[in-house]
Write a structure and sequence with these properties.
This protein has helices at residues 3-27, 32-59, 64-83, 101-107, 114-141, 143-170, 175-186, 188-200, 207-230, 237-252. With 253 residues, it is mainly alpha-helical.
């Protein structure tokens, strides 16, 4: 299959499947399953970044003295972007745990303004566009790494998309409307993938650095967001550990 078609398919899967999975988690499955999804996502993100992306960056010819400063700067950069509410838009009371989403959707009486909702969709679109760029860079490195990166994108999008649903519904949106506009936002990953394919294809020297940024993104999300939530899970520790190991195993396979 041509590489561009694989990138398009991966971007669509990364956007649409994560959106539908989040919708299922929000309205079709018990709330406790979302915490298990977080554990699975943690394993996928850490394994993809440390066992696929960073080794690939090192094997591309970059030295450790070149790779790890970029990794450090990227992790710190994501922290700054998050603080500026650009990267994962911690919007007002959206900083409450996604593990408590279902109850908040039905009990919250607070309605965000149209500007706040628009900011959520724009921020989510930017995030998805960036995911598309990272997916394309991974495929240009190696299709196998591209699919592993796609799995990691889907895994970390599930709790984020679930959080977006919670905020949009708390703002008074109907479920169908929230699903539609989140779907439109998710298509930004396709645009990111196409643009990255045609630009990075002619600037191959940049690809290893994009791969490092992708690894930093996954490490930051796992360590700064997902693992702190799991620290407060005192029930089902065995299942959480199993879900993390499943995420790692599937990534290796």
């Amino acid at each position: 299959m041509p590489l561009i078609l694989q990138i398009l398919m991966a971007c669509l899967l990364g956007g649409v499947l994560s959106l539908l999975a989040a919708f299922l988690v929000m309205f079709g499955l018990p709330k406790k399953w979302l915490s298990y999804a977080v554990s699975f996502s943690t394993g996928v993100l850490l394994a993809t970044s440390m066992l696929h992306l960073l080794p690939e960056a090192l094997s591309s010819g970059l030295t450790p003295q070149e790779v790890f400063p970029v990794l450090l700067a990227s992790v710190l950069g994501f922290f700054v972007l998050e603080k500026l509410a650009i990267w994962r838009h911690s919007h007002h009371d959206a900083d409450d745990s996604h593990l408590e989403i279902s109850s908040k959707v039905h009990t919250s009486g607070h309605h965000h303004g149209d500007a706040g909702v628009l900011g959520i969709l724009i921020g989510d679109g930017f995030h998805n566009f960036t995911d598309g760029v990272l997916i394309a860079a991974a495929f240009l490195t190696d299709p196998a790494i591209g699919w592993a990166t796609t799995l990691a994108v889907i895994a970390h999008e599930i709790p984020q998309e679930a959080g977006d649903f919670a905020i949009l519904l708390a703002s008074g949106w109907e479920r169908k409307k929230a699903l539609f506009w989140n779907g439109v936002s998710s298509l930004a990953s396709v645009a990111g993938g196409i643009i990255a394919y045609f630009s990075l294809e002619h600037t191959e020297a940049w690809i290893p650095y994009i791969v490092i940024i992708a690894a930093a993104s996954f490490i930051y999300i796992a360590i700064a967001d997902l693992l702190p939530r799991l620290k407060f899970e005192f029930q089902g520790l065995g299942w959480h550990s199993l879900c993390i190991l499943m995420g790692i195993s599937i990534t290796l396979l």
